[in-house]
């Protein structure tokens, strides 16, 4: 081994060692960093407009961009905070009491007295043949749900504090990213051993994918939340603001989505004797709320990011499982970057 080879080996060994140490140092802030990167890519065009407005004053432009993001993210929560907190606390209390006091038994008898009795008898007949005691199983499930709710109530303050701290760290990182993002991107591009054309292709695909995914999920979730919230409020479903927030959150999930909220709500109206309202909510949910999801997401995400709908679905679901909530964005980003690198490989190497 020559002296130069020994030097190169030692250099990259030391670089890898320090990099692994830094991964441990910044591991706590990985999620806020990823969120800040996503926000920076989405709102950097706004930063450019503020730079023109404030005559290239980066600090003022970045501060204005951060204030816009703060208003968009915190504003709705503050506006509905009183009602939302009251509904969340009441929801946890009611559901916890409903399960712990076995109030579900009254609902159960009501179901058995309804036309659903025929469906239940079929289920019992099939499960009995498999030696499955479904009633005790439902009781154990209800008990487990009750214990989970009690645990969530106890850890609610801790989780909220952790969320607030993460949000503050994300906003701070976002300020520096959006202020110095152009220089950071230029320095990052210089590290890639590619031609300028290929570097631009990778970064352009990254920008387009992030913007499309964020725009698609946020717009879809917002539209579904408004449509569902209005229906819950007009039809007299309890906790309309809280349930609308759940619809917006579940819009990020590829499987189930808003039906997880409006479906049980329609069933609640049916059990309450308001079968007309239940039918209206069911039709509104199936034909409008869920249809919006199936219509908007492929248009806002798939066509812009140039990702097939099936792979987009799998990327969101897999990213959610691997990264957590930020994986909703990271999954499609990783897939888009992979497809871009495949295109570069085909152009640069495969043809040769």
In summary, what is this structure?
The protein is mainly alpha-helical. Helix content is 86%, strand content 0%.
Give structural notes.
There is one protein chain. This protein is mostly helical and 352 residues long. The chain folds into two domains: 29-177, no CATH class; 196-352. 86% of the residues lie in helices and 0% in strands. The chain is built from 13 helices and no strands. It has helices spanning 3-26, 30-53, 58-79, 81-100, 104-112, 117-129, 134-191, 196-235, 240-250, 259-271, 275-305, 309-323, 327-350. The mean pLDDT is 77.
Blueprint of the fold:
Elements: H1 3-26, H2 30-53, H3 58-79, H4 81-100, H5 104-112, H6 117-129, H7 134-191, H8 196-235, H9 240-250, H10 259-271, H11 275-305, H12 309-323, H13 327-350
Helix pairs in contact: 2-3, 2-7, 3-7, 4-7, 8-9, 8-11, 8-13, 9-10, 10-11, 12-13
């Amino acid at each position: 081994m020559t002296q130069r080879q020994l030097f190169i080996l030692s250099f990259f060994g030391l670089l890898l060692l320090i990099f692994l140490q830094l991964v441990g140092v910044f591991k706590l802030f990985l999620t806020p960093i990823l969120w800040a990167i996503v926000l920076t890519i989405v709102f950097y065009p706004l930063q450019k407009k503020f730079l023109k407005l404030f005559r290239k004053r980066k600090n003022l432009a970045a501060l204005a961009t951060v204030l816009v993001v703060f208003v968009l993210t915190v504003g709705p929560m503050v506006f509905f905070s009183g009602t939302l907190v009251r509904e969340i606390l009441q929801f946890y209390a009611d559901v916890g009491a409903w399960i712990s006091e076995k109030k579900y038994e009254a609902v159960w008898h009501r179901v058995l007295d309804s036309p659903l009795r025929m469906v239940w008898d079929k289920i019992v007949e099939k499960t009995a043949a498999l030696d499955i005691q479904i009633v005790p199983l439902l009781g154990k499930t209800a008990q487990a749900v009750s214990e989970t709710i009690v645990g969530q109530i106890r850890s609610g303050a801790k989780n909220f504090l952790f969320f607030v701290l993460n949000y503050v760290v994300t906003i701070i990182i976002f300020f520096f990213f959006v202020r110095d993002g152009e220089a950071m991107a230029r320095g990052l591009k210089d590290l890639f051993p590619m031609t300028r054309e290929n570097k631009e292709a990778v970064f352009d695909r990254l920008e387009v994918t992030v913007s499309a995914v964020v725009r698609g999920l946020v717009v879809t979730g917002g539209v579904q939340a408004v449509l569902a919230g209005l229906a819950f409020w007009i039809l007299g479903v309890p906790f309309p603001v809280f349930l609308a927030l759940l619809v917006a959150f579940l819009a990020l999930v590829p499987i189930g989505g808003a039906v997880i909220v409006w479906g049980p709500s329609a069933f609640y109206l049916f059990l309450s004797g308001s079968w007309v309202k239940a039918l209206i909510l069911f039709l509104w949910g199936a034909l409008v709320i869920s249809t919006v999801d199936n219509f908007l997401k492929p248009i806002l995400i798939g066509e812009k990011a140039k990702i097939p709908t099936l792979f987009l679905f799998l990327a969101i679901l897999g990213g959610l499982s691997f990264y957590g909530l930020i994986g909703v964005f990271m999954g499609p980003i990783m897939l888009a970057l992979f497809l871009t690198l495949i295109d570069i490989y085909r152009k640069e190497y495969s043809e040769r």
